[in-house]
Amino acid sequence: MSRKTSAPRSGLTCFGVGEGWPCADRNHSSFLFRFGDLHYLFDAGDGLSSTYKASGLSYDRIDRVFISHMHSDHVGGFSLFVQGLWLEKRRRALPVHMPGQGIPAMRAWLQATGLFEDLVGFPIYWEPLAENIPIREAGMTILPFHTSHLDSLRQAFQKKHKSTCFEAFSFLIEGHGKRVAYTGDIGRASDLDPLLKEPLDLLLCEASHIPLPELLAKLRGRPIRQIVFTHLERELWSDKSRMLQETKAALGDIPFVIARDGDEYTF
Ligand SMILES: [Zn+2]
Ligand SMILES: [Zn+2]
């Protein structure tokens, strides 16, 4: 597994590997998957604006944005990112795929912050995600799956808070002869099942919402070429050597790494 590369054909850049808690040494969730010339941004947590600038990528580079769910650690940097696209003079239309119920709120937020479409200079195409309905282009397929991440909140609060978006998604991304997956935030180990049906070149896997032994038991023995762990819950992040030890013992031959902001991986 390579951590730094110059110009890979396919790769993952970690703009932010944090979870929901404030953290002094991690930005919140945001990742770039690259397949040849196609660039897909997954989640847009706080810190994206500066890490994107530091990456040196053109502001016309992103082909699509995918938002896994509406928690602020996954979406809190989105409006500032759009402001960056405006100031850096993006001109290409930007498709944004996200939970449908969050779209009116996102549009209203951009409107309220002055980022109207006729100002920013490029259209945003808002596309609601739907379970098992693929997004296809140029030999690529991005397949969203529901996760149970927000199910207990939905049960407790949906009747009272009807405008809250309780959908959460994971993604299987295939193309250029590669198959990779991003868990988004999960609620139980079985949320990983649809991602693990076939061999993976890379799994970008959150490590906050189910106990580590349970997560590792689900991954053990799977045909995965590399696992990049992200979104570690605070205790794991503060004692990464413990996680490295336990993970090595559980996963054996599967290469894995605990991602840091700015890391790049090829696949
Ligand atoms: Zn999260
Ligand atoms: Zn979440």
Summarize the structure.
The protein has one domain (10-253): 4-Layer Sandwich (Metallo-beta-lactamase, Chain A).
Give the helix/strand layout.
Layout: E1 10-16, E2 30-35, E3 38-42, H1 48-55, E4 64-66, H2 72-75, H3 78-87, E5 94-98, H4 103-112, H5 117-120, E6 124-128, E7 135-137, E8 140-146, H6 151-157, E9 169-175, E10 178-182, E11 202-206, H7 212-219, E12 227-230, H8 234-238, H9 240-251, E13 256-258, E14 264-266
Parallel strand pairs: 3-4, 4-5, 5-6, 10-11, 11-12, 12-13
Antiparallel strand pairs: 1-2, 1-14, 2-3, 7-8, 8-9, 9-10
Helix pairs in contact: 7-9
Bound molecules: zinc ion (2 copies).
Structural overview:
The protein is an alpha/beta fold. The protein has a single domain, classed as Ribonuclease Z/Hydroxyacylglutathione hydrolase-like (Metallo-beta-lactamase, Chain A). 25% of the residues lie in helices and 25% in strands. The protein is built from nine helices and 14 strands. The strands form two sheets. A seven-stranded mixed beta sheet has the order 6-5-4-3-2-1-14. A seven-stranded mixed beta sheet has the order 7-8-9-10-11-12-13, with helices on one face. The chain is globular, with a radius of gyration of 18 Å. The mean pLDDT is 95. The site of one zinc ion (ZN) has 8 residues, from helix 2.
- Classify the helix fraction into a percent range: 25-40%
CATH class: Alpha Beta
Major sheet attributes: 7 strands, mixed
**Morphology call:** globular
Rg for CA atoms: 18 Å
* Tally of separate helices: 9
**Architecture, CATH level 2?**
4-Layer Sandwich
Which spans of ≥5 residues are poorly predicted at pLDDT below 50?
none
Mean pLDDT: 95
- Major beta sheet, strand line-up: 6-5-4-3-2-1-14
